[in-house]
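User: Structure tokens for both sequences below?

Assistant:
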Amino acid sequence: MTESPFTWHAGGCHCGGVRFEVALPRQVEAQTCNCSMCGKTGFVHLIVPESRFRVVKGMERLAEYTFNTRVAKHLFCAECGVKGFYRPRSNPDGWSVNARCLDSTDSLDLKITAFDGKNWEANAASLAHFSREHA
């Protein structure tokens, strides 16, 4: 049996009403973004395929916000307002998890790079590979 290169990490919103898990490799690339949404919320993107993300509590507490093209589904806890994850426009087949909402990042080698979301149309293709399945 082959050991998985991914470990499940727990996270959630501020009030604890929404909890999720995401499977990540030890070395993981994340992005900060300067778009109108991320610049205001401080979201640090860990984009993963659908199979490596699960909501374990509070799905009924999630509210949705969309804007512009309405492709991205911004989800946040209706109680405390924290956005721990959402369905990104760049990877509509995956999830973007906010690294700041993980319970701990101590076991991760987290490399954070800047993404120019103010010029999203010109740069979005550079994110498309994150929701593909890799071993």
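Moving on to the next sequence.
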Amino acid sequence: MSASAEYLAYLAELLAPLGRIRTKRMFGGAGIYCEELFFAIVIDDVLYLKVDDESRAAFEAEGLEPFRYEAKGKLMQMNYYRAPDEALESPALMQPWARDALAAALRARK
């Protein structure tokens, strides 16, 4: 699992309208922060956005998959769902999805 420097640079540009974007290498991939709020992960150059009970349905309605990994022989799932392919095409298309991820991250903080 990894996240290429080129893909992370592209995502930082794509997500820039949200605020100050920072990436940090972690768990074999990378985490994405906006103004120090952790709201997305990148694994194998795939963007996953934070979800919660309020935002999960929108991702599932689009047929988007959650991030899963295997640990100790068990399949684990995190509250991050794959970003829609079309959202990766422009900042305008990404904004609603990324804002939902930021909102989920804010709610999780409380």
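User: Anything stand out in the second?

Assistant: The chain is about 35% helix and 35% strand.
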